[in-house]
Amino acid sequence: MSHLLINYYEAASVILFGIGFMNLLLQNNLIKKFIGLNIMDTAVYLFLAAKGYINGRVAPILSNGIIDADYYINPVPAGLVLTGIVVSVSITAFSLALVQRLYKHYGTLNMDEIMRLSREREGE
């Protein structure tokens, strides 16, 4: 239990990932599925940021002539988070554009209904 209190950012990210994953699995509405996917993305970014931070260390900007690596945090997780956010926003925008096209074509955002209508049009 004491590790959970120390690592509350990691615990919160696991809970958020679970919420997003269950939303992705259980919802039929495509917009709600993408909301779940974005919650999962956010959970991963929170986890990476939490793992990349070390209490008592500073950003890797040389100050006071200190070149010892133990004085600084690792900048790679922050770079991965920033890159992931950019990719996530791009994928979300593209996916929502596709969902909009699906809605114009089928008149619904329900995944089961879209699959049913697609099979009907295939059979014609």
TrEMBL record:
InterPro entries named in the record: CPA3_antiporter_subunitC (IPR050601), NUOK/Mnh_C1-like (IPR039428)
Please list every transmembrane segment annotated in the UniProt record, as residue ranges.
Answer: 6-26, 35-54, 78-99
Q: Which PANTHER family match?
A: ANTIPORTER SUBUNIT MNHC2-RELATED
Keyword Cell division attributed: no
Instruction: Report the protein name in the record.
Output: Cation:proton antiporter
Q: Name one Pfam family in it.
A: Oxidored_q2
Membrane topology label: Multi-pass membrane protein
Q: Which family does it belong to?
A: Belongs to the CPA3 antiporters (TC 2.A.63) subunit C family.
- The question of whether Cell membrane is a record keyword is answered with yes
Q: Where in the cell is it found?
A: Cell membrane
- The species is Anaerotignum lactatifermentans
Gene Ontology cellular-component terms listed: plasma membrane
What are the record keywords, sorted?
Answer: Cell membrane, Membrane, Transmembrane, Transmembrane helix
